[in-house]
Amino acid sequence: MNMKRILEGVLMLACVLPAWAQAPTPAGSEAKAASEAKPVVDFPEKIKDFGVVVKGEKIRATFEVRNTGTAPLEITQVRPTCGCTVADFDRTVPPGGKGKVVAEVDTTDFTGPIESGL
């Protein structure tokens, strides 16, 4: 079984969108908004390629999540793209800190190349 580009960086959207969701800023408050603390998410590694694996093997990948912003990063959900993948993740990453997202893919029901994302 050839597993090309397992667990792609769709993970970024699942983590970032809830952190960036906010109401529109009223006119004239741009300077205030610029000085407010905000989280900034960074994924140093977005793709894991496991090559050829034996059918039925469970593949585990850990992705580092960095918060390079000035406010805590709150991760509310990570959504795998298929039922073969489960994810566990750190809920809060402090400013300047690191967290992780761990994904596990069960290859029992697959033959041939597969690609799974978060």
From TrEMBL:
Is NADP given among the entry's keywords?
Answer: no
Keyword check for Cytoplasm = no
Keywords from UniProt, A to Z, are: Signal
Q: Which Pfam families match?
A: DUF1573 (PF07610)
Q: Where is the signal peptide?
A: 1-21
Record's InterPro entries?
DUF1573, Ig-like_fold
PANTHER family named in the record? LIPOPROTEIN-RELATED, SIGNAL PEPTIDE PROTEIN
What this protein is called in its record is: DUF1573 domain-containing protein
